[in-house]
Specification:
CATH topology of the largest domain: Rossmann fold
Keywords: Ligase, Peroxisome
Distance between the termini: 44 Å
Family: Belongs to the ATP-dependent AMP-binding enzyme family.
CATH class of the largest domain: Alpha Beta
Number of helices: 13
Protein name: Putative long-chain acyl-coa synthetase amp-forming
CATH superfamily of the largest domain: ANL, N-terminal domain
InterPro entries: AMP-bd_C_sf, AMP-binding_CS, AMP-dep_synth/lig_dom, ANL_N_sf
Radius of gyration: 22 Å
GO cellular component, one term: peroxisome
Number of strands: 26
Strand content: 25-35%
Shape: globular
Length: about 475
């Protein structure tokens, strides 16, 4: 992609991708070098898994998938509950060159699974045992021939379980991952949007996009460092931490428990993570929890980098958390699933209230006047547009793609209002789109209106969002 020649466009630094490998190739090669170093730790049991063991089992997954006829042109879905098996499955899928699709097995499953699986038609579905009946019903109802593999428990419907799936593929020495020639235009994942641009859609993520996602850590030696997040792999943040560990050589600590302030502090005391990623809502929860218990904040002194993602965060919360990070940096970021990045504060030479940082590597940003369509200069608010070499649009949905992405120029309409200052620091101030964000989850007000309007005593109703320091948006 050639840089834009338009005026009033912010451009991030560039890094060359010509010598980079496909993501599966990159992980395969790096993990081989890490050998008996610890790759994964279960925070509940303390059980450790080495890179060598993870590499071998992921390779067995790849061989088993290949025996099922999976090729780089296929999609393989993981319906995820956090576990070592889930991480192993995703890495194995990447080794095959197929596109990985991760769907959450939690509270969004009843709506997301029936809407996404029929669109994607995955060749194989790895399904947590807790949602086997739901997934099986979708596959049978759509008359699909997707193979269903159960992990995290036994099958109640006669499907093959994960260990049986692998049992004939223990000889992994001869396997080599699929070679990816065109990183810019080859899909490595189909990620479900978080809902910020309307109903969830499958975004085609390229190999180049995932290299760009981890570009903030480019050149960093993570061996010997512990990393942690509560985010699942259906979120870009969860994939970011998976890649940071698998490619960077860091020790990944994971938990199967939902987020709580007490559990996070326990994990921090026991494992001393140097890099963490939390949602902005989790940061606000920690600040509230520690406000009158500052003596419990000591583990934050071990954190070197704390990424906060997912929504806006007030200056109050940024400054409170930075105070706890006595030896570390608090990093805010802004981006969409559609582009795997946008801005972050990791390279900012100084703190500025409310900023989401500078434009990321290989990314361009412009602010557009909504009435005239002209690019605006510094300190003028308008709609934010992003452009990078990694945006392909929505899977099998050209109409939805055309609504947000100009495929000729590569500019993506974000639906967010913002501006940049004289030094290129970016600020997000409002939304054009109807979607609100509450405690890290996107909420469509019209969905709430539909439920309320079904009450026999309600003649009409309207739901709107109002900004809130702690939860991002309140619905009223």
């Amino acid at each position: 992609m050639e840089p834009s020649t338009e005026e009033n466009v912010l451009r991030g630094a560039t890094f060359e991708m010509e010598d980079l490998l496909g993501i599966g190739q990159e992980i395969f090669a790096k993990m081989e070098t890490y050998g008996d170093e610890v790759a994964m730790v279960d925070a509940e049991t303390g059980e450790e898994t080495t890179f060598a063991d993870l590499h071998k089992k992921a390779t067995s997954v790849a061989l088993a998938l290949t025996s099922k006829g999976v090729t780089p042109s296929d999609i393989v879905t993981l319906v995820e509950k956090t576990s070592l098996d889930a991480f192993t499955i995703v890495i194995g899928i990447l080794f095959t060159g197929a596109s990985v699709n991760v769907l959450d097995a939690g509270w969004t499953a009843p709506t997301v699974i029936p809407s996404q699986i029929p669109k994607l038609k995955p060749k194989v579905i790895f399904c947590d045992a807790s949602v086997e009946e739901l997934v099986n019903g979708v596959v049978q109802g759509q008359d699909m021939d997707s193979a269903i593999i159960i992990y995290g428990g036994d099958s109640n419907l006669g499907h093959q379980v994960f260990q049986e799936f692998l049992q004939d593929f223990e000889d992994t020495d001869a396997f080599r991952p699929a070679v990816i020639e065109d990183l810019m235009n080859t899909t490595v994942a189909v990620s479900c949007t978080s809902g910020s641009t309307g109903p969830p859609k499958g975004v085609m993520i390229t190999h180049a996009a995932l290299h760009q996602l981890i570009s903030p850590l480019k050149g960093a030696d993570l061996r010997g460092m512990t990393i942690f997040t509560n985010s699942g792999m259906s979120w870009g943040s969860g994939i970011f931490i998976l890649l940071a560990g698998a490619i960077g050589g860091a020790r990944r600590v994971f938990t199967k428990s939902p987020f709580s302030e007490e559990n996070l502090l326990r994990i921090m005391r026991e494992y001393k993570p140097g890099l963490m990623l939390l949602s902005c809502y989790q940061v606000s929860l920690m600040n509230a929890y520690l406000q009158n218990k500052k003596d419990l904040a000591a583990p934050f002194s071990d954190v070197l980098i704390l990424f906060a993602v997912g929504s806006k965060l007030s200056s109050k919360h940024v400054e409170m958390m930075q105070e706890y990070l006595s030896n570390g940096k608090f990093v805010m970021s802004y981006g969409l699933t559609e582009c795997m990045g946008g801005t972050n504060t990791i390279t900012c030479p100084e703190y500025r209230p409310q900023t989401v940082g500078l434009v990321c590597m290989n990314t361009e940003l412009k602010i557009v006047d909504q009435q005239t369509g002209l690019n605006l200069g510094p300190n003028q608010q308008g709609e934010m547009y992003l452009r990078g070499p990694t945006m392909l649009g929505y899977y099998n949905d050209p109409e939805a793609t055309a609504q947000v992405l100009d495929t000729k120029t590569g500019w993506l309409k974000t639906g967010d209002i913002g501006y940049y200052d004289d030094d290129g620091y970016v600020y997000v101030t409002d939304r054009i789109k109807e979607i609100a964000k509450y405690k890290g989850y996107y909420i469509n007000p019209s969905d709430i209106e539909l439920v309320i309007s079904q009450h026999p005593d309600v003649r009409s109703c309207a739901v709107v969002s109002v900004p809130h320091d702690d939860v991002c948006d309140l619905m009223v």
